[in-house]
């Protein structure tokens, strides 16, 4: 594993440090991974908040109830740990595991053109978010899009028909009137 920090474009956000836990400098982590404990598979994190970047090494971690708690090497003071709250937890894209051909990381979908079955450009994928039922794609208008409406599409097999990363397109079964 390289100790050279990745550039900002090469980093993927896997979670966020939200607060301290206990008195020995442990931190509470909100993980975007599924399952949430997967963020602990990465022993080196790049922490990022505004223009501040830190490289840290994870000494240990555990799931405590519904909360993920991490111990960072060299961080043994609660008050110092408190200053880590709000940092995004990032890793280099190259460290992410390979996915099968029909699976994608969210960052790969961001920026794709979204085209309906009639060939109309609905916009581009701005970002995704998770709900209890399924992930949701936020499609924002772009140059050449059908109209100036923002759309929320479910990321389901019924809605997303195909994804072509090399063409930069996502084909969807979605009524443009919605």
Which helices and strands appear, and what pairs or packs with what?
Layout: E1 11-21, E2 26-31, E3 44-49, E4 52-64, E5 67-72, H1 78-82, E6 88-92, H2 106-109, E7 113-115, E8 121-130, E9 135-140, E10 151-154, E11 160-164, E12 169-172
Parallel strand pairs: 7-12
Antiparallel strand pairs: 1-2, 1-6, 2-5, 3-4, 3-6, 4-5, 7-8, 8-9, 9-10, 11-12
Shape: elongated
Number of helices: 2
Strand content: 35-45%
Sequence of secondary-structure elements: EEEEEHEHEEEEEE
Outline the biggest β-sheet: 6 strands, antiparallel, barrel
Name of the level-1 CATH class of the largest domain: Mainly Beta
Structural class of the helices, strands and pairings? mainly beta
Task: Give the N-to-C terminal Cα separation.
Answer: 46 Å
Q: In CATH terms, what is the architecture of the largest domain?
A: Beta Barrel
CATH fold assignment of the largest domain? Elongation Factor Tu (Ef-tu), domain 3
Poorly predicted parts: none
Number of strands: 12
């Amino acid at each position: 594993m390289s100790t050279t920090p990745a550039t900002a474009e090469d980093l993927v956000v896997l979670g966020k440090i939200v607060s301290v836990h206990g008195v020995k400098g442990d931190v509470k982590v909100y993980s975007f991974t599924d399952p949430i404990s997967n963020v602990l598979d990465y022993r080196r994190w790049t922490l990022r908040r505004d223009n501040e970047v830190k490289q840290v090494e994870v000494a240990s971690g555990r799931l405590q109830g519904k909360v993920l708690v991490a111990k960072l090497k060299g961080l043994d003071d609660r008050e110092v740990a408190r200053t880590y709250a709000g940092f995004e937890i990032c890793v280099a894209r190259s460290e992410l595991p390979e996915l099968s051909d029909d699976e994608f990381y969210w960052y790969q979908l961001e920026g794709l053109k979204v085209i309906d079955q009639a060939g109309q450009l609905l916009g581009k994928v701005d970002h995704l978010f998770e709900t209890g039922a399924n992930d949701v794609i936020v499609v924002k208008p772009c140059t050449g899009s059908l109209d100036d409406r923002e759309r929320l599409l479910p990321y389901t097999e019924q809605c997303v028909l195909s994804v072509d990363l090399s063409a930069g397109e996502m084909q969807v079964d979605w009524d443009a009137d919605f």
